[in-house]
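We store sequence, tokenised fold; for instance:
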Amino acid sequence: MVVCVCNAIRETEVRAAARQGARSACQAYRALGREPKCGQCTRFARDIIEAERSAA
């Protein structure tokens, strides 16, 4: 599933960034070499990161 349309970031990429230590959407985006643009996706990305960290 696409999390960020502006940057074409997929859920699997956000999950991988969380497993590598990203604690926020901004950190995950930086790890992917991108940054939030419109910001509508950051809450969804944050939820994915929280879920991934809880599962660890």
